[in-house]
Amino acid sequence: MSIYSEKVMEHFQNPRNVGEIKDADGIGEVGNPICGDIMKIYIKVKDDKIVDCKFKTFGCGAAIATSSMVTEMVKGKNIDEALKISNKAVAEALGGLPAIKMHCSNLAADGLSKAIEDYKQKIKIKK
Amino acid sequence: MKRIYMDHAATTSTDVEVVEAMKPYFTQKYGNPNSIHSFGQEAREAVEEAREKIARLIGANPSEIVFTAGGTEADNYAIKGIAWANQKKGNHIITSQIEHHAVLHSCQFLEKHGFKVTYLKVDKYGLIDPEDVKKAITGQTILVTIMHANNEIGTIEPIKEIGKIVKEAGIYFHTDSVQTTGHIPIEVNDLGVDMLSISGHKLYGPKGVGALYLRKGTKIVNLIDGGAQEKNRRAGTENVTGMVGLGKAVELAEKRLAGGEVDKVVKLRDKLITGIMDQIENVRLNGHSTRRLPGNANICFEFIEGESMLLNLDMKGVAASSGSACTSGSLEPSHVLLAIGLPPEIAHGSLRLTLGKDNTEEDIDYVLDILPKIIEKLRALSPFTGSWDGLKKNSVEEK
Ligand code: FES
């Protein structure tokens, strides 16, 4: 018995894409204002496509699982597609989250959009 | 997989002997203790016997024991009952910041009804300074309520010292003894309390039953109105099975206390604490090193969050708890950990392991074996490694 779905527990136990990308093209860092958790997400972009994505998260099981899930979902997507990944979509991909844990999925999607913003900023400066 | 229970501050198993003692009162001796026939009278006898056992354990008179539906009701009864009964004398209550919610929320309720409440601060060990109690007393103070020991960090408060001060001032003194009754020796006159809350399921008794010790002559109004049960102090047909169970649990606790059980648990606890502190870096012990409940270990592991620790421990069969915001249901870190001065991010990484009479040395060895690996695994996921650098910027930005 667990408060979480099997999918959440699976990602929690074997989180994908943990780590940092040294020469990341974009970094997003968000803190969860509700419970105080923190996530850092790194993206590597090539020809408008996200080719790699890694994360580090200080948070609950749901926060870790959604972080892991979002990195999986985003890989191979182009920037515009990636921006469309919503908190809800991440939660759904995990087979749902307990109501009190829905806010945890914000970390992942918000972190991702911040990383993309950061990337866009960086290219603007380069141009 | 073997399951190891280390969450005895949350609840305990009901002792097999307790269950056996309760059994006849479900199906054979099911009478209402208020009935005059033999069915009723055998139930009455059992209830009074249970009352005597509780009184004996805490050095009280049986007539001073009122059964309740648990520790929470006992706290509510004591606090609200004294407040309503003594409001002509004054409207001020003194308590502490680290009380159980049953006490804190009862006090907050009274604040909404015109009472004034002082929430005393504690030091970094969670200790209340008796001098602070003295200073907080005003001509309006009618009640002081301070817990005997804290359920989260295990700190045992200087109740006896506070009791002297409160008595001198001629004020009622209540203590929530849910974590201590049956676990350490208690004597109400020695502690100097007028009321003391007890819970059944924290001492290997059943859930849904507790008691309030109410010193003779205490002016209090009822919480539950109805029939004349409990000498007109707590209405409702008696929870006979529960009361019998509580009585038996208390009887067994008395034997354990006399048999040196406390020392055994303390030894295991200290082995657990030292084992963790020696093996793992960036940890801190919450609470006091010696003025501490026998079974309580509460430790913060920096850079990781409590719920993810609990899930990992649970997967390895170990049941524990945490004061992390993510596990609290209210998404705020434990008020106790904040009151002892921990920053929220550190409170987030708290782990409480509470040992009981059935935990063994092997259990401790097992936890000491798996815990470092779990911490290491989670720290590898954390954006903070070895320091909290970068935290400030982030939290300011987001709030
Ligand atoms: S991140 Fe704190 S509750 Fe999930």
TrEMBL record, chain B:
Q: Which residues form the active site?
A: 326 (cysteine persulfide intermediate)
Binding-site residues, [2Fe-2S] cluster: 326
Q: Does the keyword Transcription apply?
A: no
Q: Which SUPFAM superfamilies match?
A: PLP-dependent transferases (SSF53383)
Q: In which pathway does it act?
A: Cofactor biosynthesis; iron-sulfur cluster biosynthesis
GO MF entries: 2 iron, 2 sulfur cluster binding; cysteine desulfurase activity; metal ion binding; pyridoxal phosphate binding
Which Pfam families did the record assign?
A: Aminotran_5
Q: What is its main location?
A: cytoplasm
Q: Taking every annotated instance into account, which residue ranges of this chain make up the domain Aminotransferase class V? A: 4-367
Kindly list the places in or outside the cell where this protein is found, as annotated in its UniProt entry: Cytoplasm
Belongs to which family?
Belongs to the class-V pyridoxal-phosphate-dependent aminotransferase family. NifS/IscS subfamily.
Complexes and interactors: Homodimer. Forms a heterotetramer with IscU, interacts with other sulfur acceptors.
Q: Kindly provide the name given to this protein in its UniProt entry.
A: Cysteine desulfurase IscS
Q: Which organism is it from?
A: Candidatus Infernicultor aquiphilus
